[in-house]
Amino acid sequence: MNRIRTIGKPCFLLILAFLQVLFFVVMYRRGSSKIFESFSKRNGKNWDYSKVKDIYTNLTLFTPALTDELQYCPPKSPLLVGPLSITFQNIPSLKRILKKNPYVKRGGLYTPPHCQARYKTAILIPHRNREMHLRHLLYYLHPFLQRQQLHYRIYLIHQAGNETFNRAKLLNVGVRESLKDEDWDCLFLHDVDLIPENDHNLYVCDETYPKHFSSAMDKFNYRLPYWSYFGGVSAMTPEQYMKINGFPNSYWGWGGEDDDIAYRVRYAGLKIVRVPLNIGHYKMVTHNTDKGNEENQKRFDLLVKSPRKWKEDGMNSLEYKLISKRLMYLFTNITVDVGVAPKDKKTKTRS
Ligand code: UDH
Ligand code: NGS
């Protein structure tokens, strides 16, 4: 009874209102993700990104083991160095990348030569007309994954033709095609222009939930742009991917498909887990809007329909024409005809 009377008192309500205003001021001034970042820092190492290492340092010291019976790689790789020096000043040639990665086999496949890997990770990159970005990514990603002692393969899912780009559908194709090669533990859905800056950001899936890796991108001042953001780099086990029915095939052009995927995760009774902001640092190669990937004017309508559509638009309705699958020196190139956007789709150039 007494407590009810206290709650009813004007001074109590005033304090409550003050606390509420204070909460919003702090959130607004510092950015919510900055606040969560400080929580995450308490749990982890406070990395100093002004002290960086070359990604190839001492990498080739680990030569093939002399015996056929390899021991499991240690649970924590001794090759990890932390923050890495990433620059886009010179575009490395494929020949140079190849020379620096002598243990990478055709198709962009790697198995540690000195120990038996604990994880098998497939990297799936949606692609068209971004060859320069691809060279930067290959230069940094190969040694990054080798430092983590993973068994891995890099796949490029290349959209043939000049029709509107469809990132999500390309990733569905990548999942289907890569699982024909091997029983991957983990599927990485990786934009071509994002380079991880810290090799402690392990390219391994969370066993229970879909995981977002690019939680702190330089273009967003190393914060999350919004709470449910799931774009850039994320990863799922094949089981998680099938549980959300993969990605929607119906998003043509820029935007919204990553938000749809984030919704699907929830509809399927899962949640998104994230790499802490102090480790999930990524540098983006800056670029302009791509021709053929203009803003999708239908994306908000599609997002509204998402709760009804997710079970029928995805891996279970995926149709495409495989044009070729080539084992290049540093990656597997899957070229695919994903079809065209429905006729009534209107797109406009982003301003
Ligand atoms: N992609 C291609 N080719 C394209 C379009 C997209 O390869 O023509 C791939 C690529 O892997 C890229 C990903 O799809 O990283 C996502 O592309 P996006 O254009 O949706 O996202 P991104 O973050 O750029 O690369 C956002 C638009 C930037 C506009 C900047 C205007 N100042
Ligand atoms: C949101 C988009 C996402 C996009 C994110 C970041 O607004 O697809 O911005 O974009 N969602 C919708 O448009 C509904 S970025 O700054 O990387 O160009 O990923």
Write up what this structure looks like.
The longest helix is centred in the N-terminal third of the chain and has 21 residues, at 10-30. 40% of the residues are buried. The strands form 3 sheets. Strands 1, 2, 3, 4, 6, 8, 9, 12 and 13 form a 9-stranded mixed β-sheet that branches. The chain is an alpha/beta fold and 351 residues long. Mean pLDDT is 90; it is low at 24-43. The protein is globular. It contains 9 helices and 14 strands. It has helices spanning 2-8, 10-30, 32-43, 94-100, 131-147, 167-181, 238-243, 257-267, 299-309; strands at residues 109-110, 120-127, 151-159, 186-190, 194-196, 211-212, 216-217, 233-236, 273-274, 281-284, 295-296, 321-327, 332-337, 347-348. Bound molecules: 6-aminohexyl-uridine-C1,5'-diphosphate (UDH) and 2-acetamido-2-deoxy-6-O-sulfo-beta-D-glucopyranose.
Summary, kept brief:
By secondary structure, this protein is an alpha/beta fold.
Mean pLDDT: 90
Order of helices and strands: HHHHEEHEHEEEEEHHEEEHEEE
Q: What general outline do the C-alpha atoms trace?
A: globular
Strand content: 15-25%
Look at the helices and sheets and give the structural class.
Answer: alpha/beta
Give the N-terminus to C-terminus distance in angstroms: 59 Å
Ligands bound here? 6-aminohexyl-uridine-C1,5'-diphosphate, 2-acetamido-2-deoxy-6-O-sulfo-beta-D-glucopyranose
Name the poorly predicted regions: 24-43
Number of separate helices: 9
Q: From the alpha-carbon coordinates, what is the Rg to the nearest angstrom?
A: 22 Å
What is the makeup of the main sheet? 9 strands, mixed
Please count the beta strands (DSSP E, at least 2 residues each).
14
* Helix percentage range: 25-40%
Cofactor: Mn(2+)
Membrane topology: Single-pass type II membrane protein
Pfam families: Glyco_transf_7C, Glyco_transf_7N
Keywords: Glycoprotein, Glycosyltransferase, Golgi apparatus, Manganese, Membrane, Metal-binding, Signal-anchor, Transferase, Transmembrane, Transmembrane helix
